TrEMBL record:
Annotated segments matching region Disordered: 265-301, 516-542
Name the record gives this protein: Leucine-rich repeat-containing protein 47
Keyword terms: Coiled coil, Leucine-rich repeat, Phosphoprotein, Repeat
Ranges in coiled-coil conformation: 405-432
Occurrences of domain B3/B4 tRNA-binding (ranges): 331-507
SUPFAM superfamilies tied to this protein: L domain-like
Gene Ontology biological-process entries: phenylalanyl-tRNA aminoacylation
Amino acid sequence: MAAAAVSEAWPELELAERERRRELLLTGPGLEERVRAAGGRLPPRLFTLPLLHYLEVSGCGSLRAPGPGLAQGLPQLHSLVLRCNALGPGLSPELGPLPALRVLDLSGNALEALPPGQGLGPAEPPGLPQLQSLNLSGNRLRELPADLARCAPRLQSLNLTGNCLDSFPAAFFSPGALPLLSELAAADNCLRELSPDIAHLASLKTLDLSNNQLSEIPAELADCPKLKEINFRGNKLRDKRLEKMLGDCQTRSILEYLRAGRRGCGKGRGREGAEKDESRRKRRERKPRRDGGEGAEPDTGDVGRLLLRVLHVSENPAPLTVRVSPEVRDVRPYIVGAIVRGMDLQPGNALKRFLAAQTKLHEDLCEKRTAATMATHDLHTVKGPLLYGARPPQDLKIVPLGRREAKAKELVRQLQLEAEEQRKQKKRQSVSGLHRYLHLLDGKENFPCLVDADGDVISFPPITNSEKTKIKKTTSDLFLEVTSATSLQICKDVMDALILKMAEMNKFTLENKEEGALSDTEADAVSGQPSGPRTNPAAGKDGQSLLVVEQVRVVDLEGGLRVVYPSKADLATAAPHVTVVR
């Protein structure tokens, strides 16, 4: 009787066992009630599937602990995703040892500490010897386990964003402790100091400690031999010159400034020289280039030069504004917008490449839309001002891309049915397309939406945007939006990456003649505009690839400014071949 009851409550487990599946995803309606009935833990039957390589259980507000038997029952597990649940304050029993685990995602839970016996696994021998990626963002961690480096010695990526950490354990930066760590993100914490021993992270390439309480940056940071990208914005540094440089300068210049200070020139010519060199470099890049005079760079000719011109709100006679209503605070509170003019999507596969670039950003930087979601709109179909709010699923109506008008509740249900059909046809738990993101809405009473001045929903993040504002080959002016449930900084970082990618694509379009562009007649038929002289919108003066980026203000319902993008601190890490004119 008991076995029959388990099979009835968890049909996915019986199916996975019968079909010898290597992947299992548990999410969607009904999961929360079943986990609650199991005592807030995963059912023991789950840990009798030794062939599993991938296990995901997400969006379950009643899951407080994985339950005993995971380590013993799933020895071949490569990826364990337990995000957006209620795990905490610790893990009892501890997760490891999991000898084959490479990816562990515990983001969006309620973890406060990971002490021995209630953490990730033993330190001797290492409980997670093959772990490469660990995501602990969006928890309540006050401290990290001192033996983390010994538990996971091959760690390459560590995300600690959005916790309550005030320091890193000393052992974390010991020589040889984490020789492969290349990405460290600990933004939106309470960090008060950064040890000079961070120089021992020999493989570190990316460091994000933005929005903390740091007052100094150790000069030894410049000794990290592979460091390419740093973010310390939002910290109140004692060195105001350095604080300003963090918003305006490239990583290379900042590291040189730190080196100069360590050589004893912090108050003299060394640091001033580094700052002046950076200032001169920027003036050269921004200076109009005439007849190949001063400011020309020998490595990058005039043709195909990437230019981004920022149009400030004060320069725009009709700036677009996004108003934010209070309901999104508990759903998806962060949004950033921007307008980009001058894209050329007509030649060949330009539009296809643009859409593929968005997909790649969603997979990588946006962490499969869990960190942030982008949406791109044809500006000429967007009627402002816009309202970013939240509505009950039965009240949110949208015409999704490639589908008929539907209420969000109906759309989500339809996507769930399609996902189940995909699983049956492919005989595996993974799904594709929009179906992969349905779990991000689990447990939400209201869904986020962006509404235009006509009252039409043009975006339903993180799922889809509207057919009304769909990008076409003839689109040259775009409205971009990035939303996130985790932080405003990730919205800005994603927007930076998207705009810089658009600039690179325009350069490629300008330099490569492709066949397959729309004829004038075809373009007119699509756009509904009369014929006229047609020019390449990507080509600026002297054959340069020019995009204009217009600032978009995000305000509350009373008109108080929440964020404007791009600000002076945004688009600050552009590549050397990209010139940002402000």
